[in-house]
Design brief:
- It is a single chain.
- The chain is of the alpha/beta class.
- It has two domains: about 5-175 and about 225-250, Rossmann fold; about 190-220 and about 255-329, Alpha-Beta Complex (UDP-galactose 4-epimerase, domain 1).
- The protein has helices at about 15-25, 55-65, 80-85, 85-105, 140-160, 190-200, 225-240, 260-270, 295-300, 310-329; strands at about 5-10, 30-35, 50, 70-75, 110-120, 165-170, 170-175, 205-210, 220, 225, 250, 260, 275-280.
- It has a seven-stranded parallel β-sheet with strand order 3-2-1-4-5-6-11, with helices on both faces. Strands 7-10 form a two-stranded parallel ribbon. The chain has a two-stranded parallel sheet with strand order 8-13.
- Strand 1 (about 5-10), helix 1 and strand 2 form a beta-alpha-beta unit.
- The chain is globular.
- It starts with a strand and ends with a helix.
- It binds nicotinamide-adenine-dinucleotide and galactose-uridine-5'-diphosphate (GDU).
- Nicotinamide-adenine-dinucleotide binds near residues 15, 78 and 93.
Amino acid sequence: MCSTILVTGGAGYVGSHVCLALSQAGFTPVVYDNLSNGHAAFVQWGDLEIGDIRDGARLDAVIARHRPVAVLHFAALIEVGESVKAPGRFYDNNVVGALTLIEAARRGGIGAMVFSSTCATYGDPVYLPMDEAHPQAPLTPYGRSKLMVEQALADYSTYAGFRSVCLRYFNAAGADEEGRIGERHHPETHAIPLALQTALGQRQGFKLFGDDYDTRDGTAVRDYVHVMDLADAHVRALKYLLDGGETTVFNLGAGTGTTVAELIDTIRRTTNRPFPVETAPRRPGDAPCLVADNRRAREVLGWQPTRTLDDIVRTAWRWHAAEREALEV
Ligand SMILES: NC(=O)c1ccc[n+]([C@@H]2O[C@H](COP(=O)([O-])OP(=O)(O)OC[C@H]3O[C@@H](n4cnc5c(N)ncnc54)[C@H](O)[C@@H]3O)[C@@H](O)[C@H]2O)c1
Ligand SMILES: O=c1ccn([C@@H]2O[C@H](COP(=O)(O)OP(=O)(O)O[C@H]3O[C@H](CO)[C@H](O)[C@H](O)[C@H]3O)[C@@H](O)[C@H]2O)c(=O)[nH]1
């Protein structure tokens, strides 16, 4: 089997790791990315086609050239804080872009898509852990842009026979075991890379946002899932669709909650560097606790997250330390 898969946003963090997993599973990824936040050097397992998902004609040409059998759609603007400042950019890129892509896929004879959604579509938790039936009330334009695409995909399935799997990630983290690719966001807002860059001396100190939450140590709880476990789930979701599976949604989280204080302890232990941490006010829009109920992905896809928080921090540390070294050369 060497079916070609169109991977939008495949030059970014999660998409590049999924390309690695696709190639290991015998698929041929073709990355479609405008490189606004991606890196050509992350495209190592197939061709790179530079283009924007809002450019239907360019998509038509790429689909005609490579004849993919399905689309994995990662391309999006992802910064939650930016989305509050510039909602129009997010709706244009994430919603108009997704609709343009779906239409191009259909014109090109593609009948299935795996879509990167997020736990941010749930908003504040009503109950924990959160399953896929949890109410969806996003707190930001970013989360709402993702929910709108989920809803459009549901209608495309019902009324046009275009099948999809929406994968709602919790906190993607970690890196390729061999250090070939990793997390490189500009600007970086995620806790793990920021703490590791502080441990490396690239940042002054780590700001811990809020120690007055109603959690076991007062800091916010998140569900960190290794990016290669996420990648494995994408390959499974793709095979599910190629086998004729019907449109559905899965949570992708490890199912375990970690507080920010516990995360910092793990990072200090792994790096063996006692970097400075300063408590700061809560970050606006942050939920106190987000943990996935991942039973559905386990049962339907046979998915099993196998990497621990230690694996996440170890692989991320290796990646960020190598990035730091590269800067010194
Ligand atoms: N990182 C996380 O923890 C997380 C959590 C939940 C959901 N997600 C979702 O996963 C997906 C990937 O996230 P990531 O962390 O890898 O982000 P990323 O910024 O590293 O990757 C996104 C990629 O999409 C490309 N892109 C953006 N807009 C484009 C456009 N209009 N046309 C073509 N390419 C475009 C960027 O250049 C980049 O390579 C996103 O859809 C994001 O919303 C990520
Ligand atoms: O410098 C920092 C950065 C983060 N945090 C804390 O660490 C936890 C994790 O924060 P991240 O920014 O790493 O991740 P989020 O949970 O905010 O974000 C995740 O969920 C978002 C939606 O809520 C988006 O989907 C995003 O892409 C995804 O990583 C939060 O409690 C946050 O307040 C800090 O204390 N200091």
